[in-house]
Design brief:
Length: 51
């Protein structure tokens, strides 16, 4: 018998809930990147406004 399992972020995912898990992982990555990007943008705006 063949066993297929899915993992996202190191966690095993139930095949019936894979859509929800993918959506959650994508939203989490977007949120993290947006937070990191905002800090960079604010920093460069401050530098530009001081010039």
């Amino acid at each position: 018998m063949v066993e297929i399992s899915f993992e996202i972020g190191g966690r095993k995912i139930n095949p019936n809930q894979i859509g929800n898990a993918i959506e959650k992982a994508v939203l989490q990555q977007v949120t993290e990147k947006k937070r990191k990007g905002k800090g960079t943008i604010r920093g460069s705006n401050l530098l530009c406004s001081q010039l």
